[in-house]
Amino acid sequence: MPSKDIASPGGREIESFVERARGLARSTPPARIIFALDATASREPTWKLACRVQSDMFGSAVAREDLAVQLVFYRGFDECRASKWVKDPDALVNLMMAVRCKAGQTQIRRILRHGYREAENRQVHAIVFVGDCVEEDVDELGMLAGRLALRGVRLFLFQEGDNSIASRAFHHLAQATKGAHCKFDASAPDQLRELLAAVATYARGGTGALKTLAKKRGGITRLIEKQVR
User: Fold this and answer.
1) pLDDT tens, residue by residue, 5-43
2) What sign does the CA torsion over 66, 204, 177, 43 have?
3) How far, CA to CA in Å, does 6 sit from each of 11, 15, 221?
4) Distance between first and last Cα of the chain
5) Residue 227 CB partners (closer than 8 Å, separation 6+)
6) Alpha helix segments (H runs only) across the chain
7) What is the phi-psi region of residue 161: left when phi exceeds 0, alpha when psi lies from -120 to 50, beta otherwise?
8) Residue 22: what pLDDT?
9) Which residues of 186-205 are buried (b: 16+ CB within 10 A; e: fewer)?
């Protein structure tokens, strides 16, 4: 019996399929991470470290443009600023390099309030905060974290040093949002690099992708994955 040919799609059908695929790609919003840092005077060494390693949040996303990051920082006694959303690690570095640290107190509540306002307008997958102390009312911060949790925003708090008050507060905020709290050593830049990469993996692919990465890398990535459920 002669074989029956399977007709291949014509040129117009292929073009139509490609165009539909492109349209779906364009309609898929990027994963969004707010990258928040304490820019008071004592944080200047860590700020420079964050400048060096922040590109690991983007990873291979530069080509796909599937990740958008917004820089938020506070410094002095009454200054808290937010950048535009960017999809280019070089753009984020340029924003960060323009900032100079100033002495002041923590303003974490302003970061959490800003994150909530952003989440009201668009999906925000995670807020990363890098700091070493808390000088605010922890109960108020916990209330704000609870509001973020209702919006599906997880807090990832990366602590430099061993301040016991900060440790308790960061742990509480992470638990309230089903996020994570990890300490890192500023003299070991690979730790912060891995932490940021883990958050980016979660933002793009959820807990399943984070679990896969943790199995592959172990170490500090595993510490995050165990907390994010």
Assistant:
1) 434 445 565 555 555 555 544 557 899 999 999 998 878
2) negative
3) 16, 19, 49
4) 58
5) 174, 179, 180, 181
6) 11-27, 44-53, 61-64, 89-97, 108-121, 138-150, 164-177, 189-217, 219-227
7) left
8) 55
9) beeeebbbbbbbbbbbbbbe
Phi first, then psi: give them for residue 172, nearest 5 degrees. Answer: -65, -45
Tell me the average pLDDT across 77-97: 90
Q: Quick check: 130 and 38 in contact, CB under 8 A?
A: yes
Q: Report d(CA 191, CA 52) in Å as an integer.
A: 12
Residues sharing a CB contact under 8 Å with residue 29, sequence separation 6 or more, in sequence order: 122, 123
- Give the strands of the sheet with 180-184, arranged side by side: 79-86, 67-75, 31-38, 126-131, 154-160, 180-184
| Cβ atoms 47, 101 nearer than 8 A | yes
Q: Distance between CA 229 and CA 219 in Å, rounded?
A: 18
Instruction: Using alpha carbons, list the distances in angstroms from residue 75 to 10, 70, 71, 101, 153.
Output: 61, 17, 13, 6, 24
229 vs 224: CA distance, rounded Å: 10
- pLDDT > 70 in the chain, percent: 86
Residue 91 has pLDDT above 80, yes or no: yes
Residues in the chain: 229
